[in-house]
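Quick review question:
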C-alpha cells in the first residue's frame, strides 16, 4: 500500500509537539497510520499512528519515539524511502519509494 493511503504527513518539531510541513526538505520526520494495523483493521478506524524521525535533521536524542532515526531518500512524501526497516512491534517492514511492504 502507498503511504499516501496511510495518510502520511511530513512533520517537524514545534513548541507544542510537531506540525505538518509541505516539503521533504524541511521535514524532520514522517507520521502515518500503522501499515500492519491498517491492513488488520481494513482501514483507518482503530488504527494508531507511527512516527519515524529522520537522521541528520537535528532531532534531539530525547525526542520519542526513539532511539531509532531513519536515513531518508526521495524528493517528496510520495517517493520517500526510509532506511533501515521500521519495526513497531505490530508491524515490521519497509517504506520504499512511498510504499509500505512487509519485511
Ligand atoms: Zn500497529
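Suggested answer, residue by residue:
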Amino acid at each position: 500500500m502507498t503511504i499516501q493511503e496511510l495518510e502520511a504527513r511530513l512533520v517537524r518539531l514545534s513548541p507544542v509537539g510537531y506540525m505538518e510541513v509541505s516539503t521533504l526538505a524541511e521535514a524532520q520526520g514522517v507520521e502515518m497510520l500503522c501499515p500492519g494495523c491498517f491492513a488488520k483493521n481494513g482501514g483507518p478506524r482503530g488504527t494508531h499512528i507511527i512516527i519515524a524521525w529522520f537522521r541528520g535533521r537535528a532531532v534531539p536524542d530525547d525526542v520519542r519515539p526513539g532511539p531509532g532515526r531513519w536515513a531518508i531518500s526521495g524528493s517528496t512524501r510520495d517517493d520517500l524511502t526510509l532506511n533501515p526497516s521500521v519495526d513497531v512491534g505490530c508491524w515490521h517492514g519497509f517504506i520504499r519509494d512511498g510504499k509500505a511492504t512487509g519485511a
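Why it works: Strands lie at 9-14, 17-20, 29-33, 49-53, 71-73, 81-83, 86-87, 92-96, 99-102. Helices lie at 35-41.
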